[in-house]
Design a protein that fits this description.
The chain is 72% helix and 0% strand. It has 839 residues and is mainly alpha-helical. The protein binds one DNA strand of 10 nucleotides through helix 18, helix 20, helix 24, helix 26 and helix 28.
Length: 839
DNA sequence: CGGAGTCCTG
């Protein structure tokens, strides 16, 4: 697995163009026109590195092959080749194809593919370049591109210097050599081997070969996050290559991404001064980036500016702006722009509907969706597909997947096709519900109807699999996406790293992390944060700090999450003073502590019993105007409860409601637990009703707490009644609910009731461990209920769980206690046989 | 331009 990852994460070394130096002098440049006689020595030296020294040139054999090829049809040629193929070596193939490339290019290519496909011949680099030149000469550009792409991906990153040397030495005088160079640089760039692309460009400059704007654009795009982008742009200007409108919009985009907004705007307007018009694409980029950072008004003014230039916004312009408005919740204005869109003759498309549907559902405004539908009706537009899209998105967001599937059936029966976004939305909902296998079969369905899952689709699934703990399966998918040439990004990597650290071992996760970071391409603080959090959680604060230092060596910036995880780590290791010190250093990094930061520290203080200290931190937080969250208050409630300040905690709960910070299940569980401990079951159940009143669904933990409370504080029959009531209501209960009740019945000596519950628990499919059996057997033994002990002993053994020493001694004691000598000796024999008897 | 979600606190 790791090998794969290594292949995909090609290093991106940052070096400016100026610093590029040639690794070999060009004095060896040979300008011999390739011909049958003269090229033999040249090729022998050029390919010396990758040919076997035993390979020698046999002109006679070559001549024979040529003769055979020229005189016969392809089929016969293939047969003829078969007789030669054992005697062929790469030098000969280079020669033959090289010669043919000049005389009869078509035949050369045919021969090449014959050798490659039918005889499995591994061609040399020389041969590849001959074919490349032939393809270039014939202007078969798409073929040339994929051919060279295959070549550079085979050679891998860092291969540019040696390939350039070959290309420069042997092929300089070939027709179309310039085109091959350009395409060569282009494919390196497209394959994200940026430094190789830069190397090729530098060589081209030396050789006075001009790169095309397509190549430059691709490179600019790949470098748009870095400051090298502008260096490349200087190169473009110097080279005098005619720029396309994409050049501008890539640069505008890149400057925005580097937070150089002023520069981006200036650049955008500069095009006007140069006599040409800013393009719609360039405007769209600006609108999009400004929306992204929340400057909707600025985005809108750029939108208006387009009209002033006499440019008409396209569907992209509208969708970008409508999206921006939806994100900030200005649905009304978004709808106005949709009107405007139609008035200007731009049809809203499926993207527009997706954006609006999502916008309405984010705000919980289903009626807004109907607004759109009415609108569509009015315009007489194709309604069905719009309604379906909106409804599907809506149901996905509320998690009602069954409804989505119904709609899907309906759509399909009416001959409509789901688009790839619909599929992704559906996949995402399925994953969130943990229904991964259905998601996977939907992926196959997508593929079977010809939709291509992309990075996002795969990432959703990989993330879903990792969340379910199926990391191995996730990795399989990760490999599959690579084979389909879909390359993972930090989202994907983050999901895998998270899954590995959660389900696998920490060292496995670390190995993966090291491969990613050492490649140099992935520089993402999130990956560091995940790793640091893991170390922190396991109390390995030393390793966490070590990684923190590495962040700076990698020249990336820590985020507040980094510090929060570190503080969490110090708290876990009970080093609260250090945690405090780290909290105080946050501001020196230009970051602001969040509620999470303070809550982490407060929780640690609370656990330590330092409630005063906790409350001090709370007030410090308030003076620094950092809003406490419901988690913060839950911690405070916990602290107050610890000191039996129940009335205060109830008061806090009320003030939370008043402040609009809704308490969640955790908050209620905490406070209910406190009232149970204080033996106030009436209040505990009252709080439970309050939860329902606030539309909060009590979870299994809530019920465990309540059942336990009843067991401890009330008559056991009340607990039994409540338990059956919950079961009748089909409320999901977890194992602790059962074990709590079992424990209580054992303590009371009601073995048959305990027995029945235990069997129920087994029937429900809960995983029963030796701990559960021994707890049961222990309690029964202590009460000398040996017949029941025997029953459970048999159950346990038939469940495939073997005895341990501790449980043997307990049972032996019980048998002896009741004078059941037969059983005692029988078990003693087993105990000794299994070597469990203590010395 | 739409569909992943930056994996930190109870």
């Amino acid at each position: 697995m790791l090998n794969h990852i290594h292949q995909w994460t090609r290093p991106l070394k940052r070096f400016p163009l100026k610093s590029l130096t040639l690794t070999t002098p060009l004095s060896s440049l040979t300008l011999t026109k390739p011909s049958a006689s003269a090229s033999a020595s040249a090729s022998a030296s050029a390919s010396a590195a990758d040919t076997d020294p035993a390979d020698t040139y046999d002109p006679a054999a070559s001549l024979e092959i040529l003769k055979c090829l020229k005189s016969k049809d392809l089929y016969s040629s293939s047969l003829c080749l078969k007789t030669f193929v054992d005697r062929l070596n790469s030098v000969q193939v280079d020669e033959v194809i090289g010669d043919l490339g000049v005389e009869d290019p078509e035949l050369a290519i045919e021969l090449f593919y014959l050798l490659k496909n039918e005889h499995g011949f591994r061609h040399s680099r020389v041969c590849s370049f001959v074919v490349a030149h032939v393809l270039a000469g014939k202007r078969r550009l798409m073929e040339l591109r994929s051919f060279l792409r295959e070549l550079v991906e085979q050679e891998g990153s860092g291969s540019a210097p040696s390939l350039c040397e070959l290309l420069g030495n042997r092929f300089r005088v070939w027709e179309s050599n310039g085109l091959v160079w350009d395409m060569f640089a282009f494919v390196y760039s497209r394959s994200e081997m940026v430094h190789d692309a830069l190397f090729v460009l530098a060589k081209m400059k030396d050789l006075n070969i001009r790169a095309s704007i397509l190549t430059y654009n691709s490179l600019l795009f790949n470098l748009r996050h870095t400051n090298i982008m502008l260096d490349v742009y200087e190169e473009i200007k110097a080279s005098g290559a005619p720029q396309s409108e994409y050049t501008t919009s890539i640069l505008v985009d890149g400057l925005c991404r580097q937070s150089l907004f002023q520069e981006a705007v200036a650049f955008h307007q500069e095009t006007e001064r140069k006599g040409s018009m800013p393009s719609v694409a360039s405007f769209n980029t600006l609108i999009s980036r400004f929306c992204e950072v929340g400057y909707i008004d600025v985005a809108k003014s750029f939108f208006c500016m387009m009209f002033k230039y006499g440019l008409l916004p396209d569907a992209y312009s509208y969708n970008i702006l409508i999206h921006g408005l939806c994100v900030v919740g200005s649905m009304e204005e978004a709808l106005e722009f949709m009107d405007d869109m139609e008035n200007h003759g731009v049809e809203p498309d499926v993207v527009t509907y997706n954006i609006l549907a999502k916008g309405f559902h984010l705000l919980g405004m289903m009626c807004g969706a109907w607004e759109i539908i009415r609108h569509m009706l009015h315009k007489g537009l194709n309604l069905e597909i719009v309604i379906y899209t909106i409804l599907m998105c809506g149901h996905c967001q509320t998690g009602d997947i069954e409804k989505v599937f119904e709609l899907r059936e309906e759509m399909l029966s009416q001959g409509f096709q789901l688009n790839d976004i619909c599929y992704s939305v559906l996949l995402s909902s399925l994953c969130k519900k943990g229904r991964i296998s259905e998601a996977l079969s939907l992926l196959h369905e997508m593929e079977s109807i010809g939709l291509k899952p992309d990075l996002v689709t795969y990432s959703i699934l990989i993330h879903g699999l990792c969340k379910q703990g199926e990391v191995q399966h996730a990795i399989q998918l990760y490999n599959k996406m690579h084979s389909k040439r879909v390359f993972p990004n930090s989202f994907t990597h983050g999901a895998i790293l998270w899954g590995l650290s959660e389900k696998g071992t920490l060292s496995e996760a670390r190995t993966f992390f090291d491969v990613l970071t050492k490649s140099g391409l992935i520089k993402d603080i999130v990956l560091y944060n995940i790793m640091i959090y893991r170390y922190a959680k396991l109390g390995k604060i030393g390793e966490a700090v070590q990684l923190y230092k590495q962040i700076f060596e990698s020249r990336i910036t820590p985020s507040i999450v980094t510090f929060n995880s570190l503080i969490y780590g110090f708290c876990k290791s009970r080093k609260l003073a250090e945690a405090r010190t780290w909290l105080d250093t946050i501001s020196t990094h230009g970051l602001v502590p969040t509620a999470v930061t303070y809550t982490t520290l407060m929780n640690a203080l609370c656990e330590e019993g330092n409630i005063r200290g906790m409350l001090e931190v709370l007030s410090e937080m308030e003076t620094r105007a950092i809003k406490p969250t419901n988690v913060t208050y839950t911690v405070v409630v916990k602290g107050l409860c610890k000191q039996h300040r129940l009335q205060e905690s109830l008061h806090l709960l009320d003030s939370m409601h008043a402040k609009g910070i809704s308490p969640d299940e955790f908050t209620y569980n905490t406070i209910i637990h406190c009232f149970c401990k204080a033996q106030d079951m009436r209040k505990a159940f009252q709080l439970h009703s309050e939860m329902l009143l606030h539309n909060l669904q009590p979870g299994p933990v809530t019920y465990n707490v309540l059942i336990n409370g009843l067991c401890v504080n009330r008559d056991l029959t009340e607990a039994d009644r409540y338990f059956s009531f919950l079961q009748d209501q089909n409320i999901r209960l977890t194992k602790p609910a059962y074990t709590t009740l079992i424990k209580a019945h054992c303590a009371k000596g009601d073995a048959s009731k305990a027995d029945a519950l235990f069997r129920q628990m087994v029937e429900k499919g809960f995983e029963i461990s030796i701990r559960d059996y021994s707890a049961m057997i222990n309690r029964l033994s202590r009460r000398k209920l040996t017949p029941n002990v025997k029953v459970f002993l048999r159950m346990m053994l038939s469940d495939g769980i073997s005895l341990d020493q501790e449980i043997c001694l307990v049972i032996l004691n019980a048998f002896r206690g009741v004078g059941d000598l037969n059983s005692e000796f029988e078990l003693l024999a087993v105990t000794i046989k299994h070597g469990l008897f203590p010395d």
